[in-house]
Write the structure tokens for this entry.
Amino acid sequence: MRSESEQPESDNPFTIPVATRVLRLPPYLFGKINALKHKKRVAGVDVIDLGMGNPTDPPDPMIIEKLTEAVADPRNHRYSVSTGVENLRREVGKRYWKRYGVRIDPNDEVVACIGSKEGFSHLCLALMGPGDTAIVPAPSFPVHVYAVALASGNVIALDVRDPEQFLANIDYTCTHLYPKPKLVIVNFPHNPSATVIEQDFYVELVRLAKKHGFLVISDFAYADICFEGYQAPSFLATPGAFEVGVEFTTMSKGYSMAGWRIGFCAGNAEMCRALATIKGYYDYGIFQPVQIAAIVAMRNCDAAVESIAEEYHRRRDVLCDGLERLGWEIERPRAGMFIWAKIPEPWAQMGSIDFAMKLLDEVGVAVSPGRGFGEEGEGYLRMAIVENEQRLRQAVRQIGRCMKQEVEQP
Ligand SMILES: Cc1ncc(COP(=O)(O)O)c(C=O)c1O
């Protein structure tokens, strides 16, 4: 605490020299819109928040009950194991077997993480260093870029929206860049663009990984949220995948456990070991009751996961129907929690950041401007379908009002 006599000397300020790894982070383009959202809320505005993929529904009651029971057990308050308790890792293996026919050794090929974001970032730190390059999907989920930058690596962002072209560009980049990229990050169903792929994509990716010698990290955060019979394939279900890479899954989305902070890295044993080594220095693992409740969730809550996916499906249709009625051209996503919406003219000319600010400022609807996901995102908004159907209908009405005002202005 600063004492009253201790006033800062303005003519000779003491500077805090933060590390270069912090200074070289790209600018955070959601800062302006987050600040306005906060201001609106403080002023009492009921913001309809489609900004972040942060589920608003609670997890299945059985999961909460198990957590409560485990919290009451005095044995569960000590430091846990950094890589996750054995029964949890085993449950992840069982789930991969049941859903994707993939056999995983829970001892060497699974690491539990404090959310997949933590695991992903620390794995980048374990794999990347100065002079190393990673290929990341563009438009980019910011963490995919930041984690590589924080690990002192360089980023090449390749447009992911045409998956075949994405593969061809990976091949081209690896052929012509020296030294070759060390890591390729993939994320299907993709955030933010909602691009999906079939298993043959991964067959080609594994072939390219072996040809060029790069490692693969698959971020499979939206594995559980698929619509109309589409089943998102697992990278690990591809022959040869375990030789070249790992996959991250999470309890945040399909189980609505985002705040609980629990996810998993599975696949190549050496990459898992590298992640476990880094984590061993940084953390003491996830609170044990959370791990115990996660085991129960994976064992017993398939029906709850299905019903969460159905809910997102209904919300998708409510929001897409509404935007189409307003004249937006919408491609309905087959998976994930986001509508990647092309901004209609003349509003697209404003730029996605200004248009998102306008929607928030004038009608209290918060969305993420596409530009926040890199240059490839300009001209788009990302809308998270995390509010209920009634609130989404309200959001459409308010967006319509905002657009009408604009048209009616002389
Ligand atoms: C693509 C992607 N990966 C990872 C995460 C983070 O998930 P977790 O809550 O497991 O850290 C998100 C969350 O928004 C995401 O969209």
Remarks:
- The domain at 61-300 is CATH 3.40.640.10 (Aspartate Aminotransferase; domain 2).
- The chain has a mean pLDDT of 95.
- Residues 53, 115-117, 141, 187, 191, 219, 221, 250, 252, 258, 263 surround pyridoxal-5'-phosphate (CB under 6 Å).
- The chain has two domains: 22-51+304-404, 61-300.
